[in-house]
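Late entry, written up from scratch paper. The run itself happened at the end of the previous shift, but nothing got recorded in the book at the time, so transcribing now.
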Amino acid sequence: MIDAQDMVKVHTTGYDLEEVKIILNHDIKLNISGIEIEGKQGEMLNVPRWISQVLESENHAKLQDIDMLVELKQATVKENVQGEEHLSTLDPHFYIRLKSYMKTLLPQDFDKIESMLITLVRKRQGKIVRLADSSKLTANLSQKLTIEERLFYENIYKNATDFRKQILGDK
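Output as recorded:
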């Protein structure tokens, strides 16, 4: 069985291979690891995310991506609206996307986003622990969880079940 860290690495790699849109800052003709990139200034291209990160870091292009600050704020509001018994739905790669976004931030911006993220994680973590302690993971609930949260849920459920068996036996 694959462990949690390896599962997140696999999904992060998949995320980095997804195609994204970039806008070229100037005329360009490059070969990056055997991938030809050619275009004129202002042109929009689809490239794998890892290539967009290389091009953006060298100021060759601007990534056209979802604003993760907005997503984080929306996720926090939705989670608060759900109350203590229900989870809102997060994209399976929400935390992977957010961690990637946070790598690009200045220290003062990073601290603000990290604080918001910690608040969201604590709220969801508490709900997941309560849910996992009482029932198996359902298909409906699974769709609301991120990759990391699903693994956390399954671990809590297994540990809670094992604990009850130690105390109560196989009833």
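The beta strands are 19-24, 28-32, 35-39, 44-48, 61-64.
(Scratch paper discarded after transcription.)
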